[in-house]
Amino acid sequence: MSTSNQQHKAGDLHFLKRLNRSAILELVRRTPGLTRADIATQAQLTKATVGAGVQSLLNQGWLREGELQKSSGGRPGRALHLNEEQHVLLGAEVGVHGLRLVACTLAGQVLVSHHEHLVPTTPEVTAELLGELLHALMQEAPVKSRRCLGLGIALPGPIAPNKPVLRLAPNLGWRDVRFLELLRPHLPHLEGTWLMDNEAKSAAFGELYFRTGNIPESLVYVSAGTGIGSGMVEGSHLPLVTRGIQGLAGEIGHTVLQPGGLYCHCGNRGCAETLVSGWSIRAALGIAEEEDLIESLLPRLDEPDVQVTLRRAGEALGVLLLNLHHTQNPSEIVLGGSLTQLGAPLLGPALDFFKANQNRLLGTTQQVPLRVVQDSTFIAARGAAAQVLASIIHGSSDLGDTFF
């Protein structure tokens, strides 16, 4: 047998061990409390393979053992859970009017969070400030003793497929920005995986990936804030994000609802954002850029011009939700973003339109669940942290060799 063949087989064995540990970790992540016997059955692995894999993950701090579970025949086994004490995942969202940061456990529990309001500025200034805030976040007591697995950044625009470039953030005026490269000099000692994605796609990913128990087959997250975007993910093992050939999938804010309508920040006319978005509501009601939109509007919800503006925006949002239902047909729709805090004046017309029209095409009584997240401040940042974890669990690097 040649040396090259021996090396190839050794590599194959190492790769198989890595795949088995990833499968074990993913099963425990999705269904906490499984025993070794449960994992062997569900993963269709031998008990010896599962035993060795679990022991390795226990030694490396990825898993912990819990209570004894009753057995239907054999010996009771110990429940297995993610180890929530050793690692930390960092996530951040660069919004049009603020920066939102989180530090999460492996199960998505937020240990520390921070929301920094700011007026839109340049990528360079934003990267410097975000670096300072992340450095401070990592010094917080619940975080500083943990091993950092990496950082995910959620950004307000389409990301180029297969490379970390923000193609366009129309509400910031940014184009072709390599944001991670701008950020790295400000965090030279931050270890682990670095990645970036569109904020609605990150939010959608986190909403599905950190779910345990009853996991939907697919999920669309709609982000209704300064702009309007969406992200769709499918599958429970490693959710796949719908991206499109240019990264434009989900850019529903720039679908045209009113041909020949008002000019949008993207340069087209009649985009959905000219009818329903934070910036279009500001323009209609004369609210300055430096003012907090929600704080400015909440005391004015009884004013007739505010009611008319929000009703029209809500109707447009309802049309977008119905269009997503017909074009993507997900198992679940989640509506978030700062505009949901405006409540019934905006959401009432949107939800009423969606409920009244979603079943006309098929004539069925089955309702696609639509869940509204009242406080989604950190949902995209947490989703970016989830993407870091998924990248590590399902990536090519060995779970042990990479971090220990």
From TrEMBL:
Record Gene3D superfamilies: 3.30.420.40, Winged helix-like DNA-binding domain superfamily/Winged helix DNA-binding domain
Protein name listed in UniProt: ROK family protein
